[in-house]
Amino acid sequence: MASGAAIKRSESIAESMPEALRQSRYHMKRCFAKYIEKGKRIMKLPHLMSEMETVIDDKVERNQVLEGVLGYILCSTQEAVVIPPFVVFAIRPNPGYWEFVKVSSEDLSVESITVRDYLKFKETLYDEKWSNDENTLEVDFRAIDFSTPHLTLSSSIGNGLNFVSKFTSSKLAGRLENAQPLVDYLLSLNHEGENLILNENLNTASKLQTALIVTEVYLSALPKDMPYHNFELRFKEWGFEKGWGDTAERTKETMKLLSEVLQAPDPLNWKDVLGLPDTGGQVVYILDQVQALEEELLLRIKQQGLTVKPQILVVTRLIPEAKGTKCNQELEQINGTKYSNILRVPFRTEKGILQRWVSRFDIYPYLELFAQDASAKVLDIMEGKPDLIIGNYSDGNLVASLMANKLGITQATIAHALEKTKYEDSDIKWKELDPKYHFSCQFLADTISMNATDFVIASTYQEIAGRGFLADRKKPIIFSMARLDTVKNITGLVEWYGKNKRLRNLVNLAVVGGFFDPSKSKDREEIAEIKKMHTLIEKYQLRGQIRWIAAQTDRNRNGELYRCIADTRGAFVQPALYEAFGLTVIEAMNCGLPTFATNQGGPAEIIVDGISGFHIDPNNGDEASNKIADFFEKSKTDATYWDRFSKAGLQRIYECYTWKIYANKVLNMGSTYTFWRQLNKEQKQAKQRYIQMFFNLQYRNLVKNVPIPSDEAEQPVPKPTAKSQPTPSTRRSQSRLQRMFGA
User: Fold this and answer.
1) What are 131-144's pLDDT values in tens digits?
2) Which residues form the Sucrose synthase first GT-B domain (predicted)?
């Protein structure tokens, strides 16, 4: 396939495409005629390619086209909208960079269009009257972000902290007076009313700079390991409070960083990114995240010479009808932590408290009141405001936005997976899907929270039993574990396996997910997938070749499952239609299992294709199953082949994915973006008013269309069983300006 080398660096796609079409005019005329033959529609890359194959049946001629500029353009196309006589391409040649071009099938003329025009063109497929209305409401957050730099280079992805450091540095640079916002921020830091870092004796940048020169001379004469409390009183007289370090050496190091920031701000460079292997989706992810954050906070507090105790609360819903679980317990300590708890708050309406569980698609009517109740509980238990709130998934992110706005604190957002990317064409077909999924509420919730947040962290089971048996236990096993829903595509994997006789001769299949009895599930998607799983097992006569195990909650047992599969020299397959991150992928690789994972989303980054694992196209089951079969055929003839991918997967995890990296980066981002909020307070307030308008005028009306269960009854909410101390504002760091907030 083409690499794009034929496109000149100075040319856009729109500039390169006309000549490429002219060179293959005969074939392209026929090809575009084929594209518009079926009228209005959206086409994905597989459709574009397959219809081209039917037109250009000569393989040599087809390869010539695909190896040139047109092949590069097609391979970079995310989707194409067909409205005869035009085909409009949404092309993404590089991460973060898009071009939109409109091609006429009549004369192959090419026109570059804006994203706004492309979206209007796309909307025409479903609501032509609405898309042509010149007075249609347009949401444009760029008009509010008048001082926020907009990053467009793909190299900026995942490096937001680094760029914020640069922008902040530029604001502080120049005259000493420019650093006054930094001094004001340091003066505002306190814990339970007790000042940290500075007091009012050092209330200007010039005073602070002079005092830092004096203290550096004083500290140089002290033993490096002298505890801070030995010189604490003198520092207090000079205007310094606790929080600089636990020893004379660390205090001197931190103060030197601040001196350098005041003299010449210098941003930090960041390497490596987040994560750690695990099984069980975002719930397990959050609990592991909490453990890592608590450990990092405890380390930083000790190194900064403080004795305060951190506190982390994981806020979720309380379900009175808990059915043997702890979901009706208001406060529960998190295993493996000292100062972290789960706080559960019930959903309620004006009629009372919701007694039972409801699907994530149906919870939007409850979120506004939940945010109010949760804010009050958090303030009560922490005895003060938290320093940072992190939202998870659409509902949690909206609640985090409402709470952060109410309490005036820094907000982080973890998307996990936006439903608009998981459900194909849901952005354009949302009206027909709305009765089932309520995407209008969810997409608006995502829009509100993603624009309200200060920074985004990007990056996503029950009893053991089983159905089926493995007749030939000597075969390797391909293994997959996920929720049973449409997006996770476990039934898709079962169908790939069932259709591929070569693969069935080579390996057995084991899947973990869902229930066997659909009546035990309350989730409508899961019920449909359970029924489909039973149908597929019968249709392809998979008895003796498949082992279906119910979803698991025992994480240790999950780890053993991976290792058992590795003992058979099997492989892990993650076939999701879209996966934002891919915790199970990391878990499998960390257990030495060669891994095949979707090329749609995060796993495409985790795995280096053909080196530490394999990418598979979830929309092409035949190709995916043959790729897996090829691997096991090679492993059968070459014993080192399986070992090579097993070791390469382990190496990839060790180099790039640890919770230590994650916790350190999140805490540094939290403190850095808190200062960034202070620098851009007026813009933040203007943007918040814009967001509140949409929340009040749109979201509140949309949630009225979501059905509310009728089993609500008044029930007193249990009172907290314990209280903990607030999370401190202390931080540790890695470099000048950034380290002033982060370390």
Assistant:
1) 777 777 777 777 66
2) 271-467
By C-alpha distance, which of 408, 416, 366 is closest to 389?
408
Cα maximum dimension of the chain: 86
Q: How do 110-113 and 190-191 pair as beta strands? A: unpaired
pLDDT per residue as tens digits for the range 162-219: 666 666 766 766 677 778 888 888 888 888 788 888 899 888 888 888 888 888 888 8
Q: Would you tell me which CATH number, out of the four given (3.50.50.60, 1.20.120.1230, 2.30.30.60, 3.20.20.70), belongs to the domain 174-264?
A: 1.20.120.1230
From the candidate CATH numbers 3.30.1330.30, 3.10.450.330, 1.25.40.10, 3.20.20.70, the one assigned to the domain spanning 13-138: 3.10.450.330
For the chain, the 3-state helix, strand and coil shares in percent, each to the nearest 5, are 50, 15, 35
Q: How many CA atoms lie within 13 A of 693 on its CB side?
A: 9
Residues 55/31, Cβ–Cβ less than 8 Å:
yes
Helix H segments across 488-638? 490-499, 501-506, 524-539, 555-567, 583-590, 603-606, 621-637
Classify residue 722 by burial, with Cβ atoms within 10 Å: 0-12, 13-18, 19+: exposed
Residue 505 has a pLDDT of 93
Token duo for residue 141: 């957050």
Would you state the structure tokens that stand for residue 728, as one six-digit string?
């401190």
CATH number of 477-659: 3.40.50.2000
Cβ neighbours of residue 151 closer than 8 Å, sequence gap 6 or more? 96, 160, 163
d(CA 179, CA 187): 13
In tens, the pLDDT along 345-354 reads: 999 888 888 8
What is the pTM (predicted TM-score) of this model? 0.57
> What residues does each domain of the chain span?
13-138, 174-264, 477-659
